[in-house]
Amino acid sequence: AQSVTQLGSHVSVSEGALVLLRCNYSSSVPPYLFWYVQYPNQGLQLLLKYTSAATLVKGINGFEAEFKKSETSFHLTKPSAHMSDAAEYFCAVSVGLGDKIIFGKGTRLHILP
Amino acid sequence: GAVVSQHPSWVICKSGTSVKIECRSLDFQATTMFWYRQFPKQSLMLMATSNEGSKATYEQGVEKDKFLINHASLTLSTLTVTSAHPEDSSFYICSARDPLAGHPGSEQFFGPGTRLTVL
Fold it and tell me: Can you tell me whether residue A84 is helix, strand or coil?
């Protein structure tokens, strides 16, 4: 079975500060990992995905994530937070690209002016 | 990227009625679509996997007789909530798997969601 755990249901950072959202995964097979963002009352937008091609994955809007097998982690970072980054972020895992996706519980990112 | 639409975007219905939600892949053919439910301030929970031309595969704990899924064409899947009750009020989101499934460029594309409120 696969699962993801997101540490911290709420994270607050100041505008311009580093954003770090934590995600740990559990998988019996090599995983595919994703980060999605959701704005209020909207669907999901893919930020980035790990497909085993490279451990450091760069996504949209300046976000990136690093796959660390030894730590079973896939933390999301952004060097400098913008007010527009305030949203809900979901880490997710899948056994195959295009296969069903298991989501974490989400982390709401608050940006402080 | 590929576009997935849902209709309606929101619906309010009386308890005991049935509601149909449509999920369409607008610019690609999707042999597989997924239906998720999201309660307020919670994560997305997979309800079922819908395969074109065959029966849907439901996740454990999801009532297949209550949540009817039909995937009659490569661009359309429907979710019907039968005899809806207030506890069925939720945000329902579909996703469609693109034709590159299994390839590094593959991903699921999510619809904008449908807000169901049962009075």
Answer: helix
CB contact under 8 A, A98 and B49: no
* A-B contacts at Cβ under 8 angstroms: 61
List A66's β-bridge partners, or say none.
A56, A75
Note the pLDDT tens digit of each residue in A13-58. Answer: 999 999 999 999 998 888 899 999 998 878 889 999 998 878 999 9
Contact B111 A53 (CB under 8 A): no
Instruction: Kindly tell me the sign of the dihedral angle through the C-alpha atoms of B37, B25, B103, A51.
Output: negative
Residues 6+ apart with CB under 8 A from A13: A19, A81, A109, A110, A111, A112
Predicted confidence at residue B53, as pLDDT, reads 83
DSSP state of A18: P
Nearest CA in chain A to B103: A97
- pLDDT tens figures, B85-112: 999 999 999 999 876 656 655 678 899 9
Locate the DSSP E strands across A1-113.
3-7, 10-14, 19-26, 32-38, 44-50, 56-58, 64-68, 73-78, 87-94, 101-103, 107-112
Instruction: Check if the beta carbon of residue B6 is closer than 8 Å to that of residue B30.
Output: no
Dig out the tokens for B9 from the structure: 């975007």
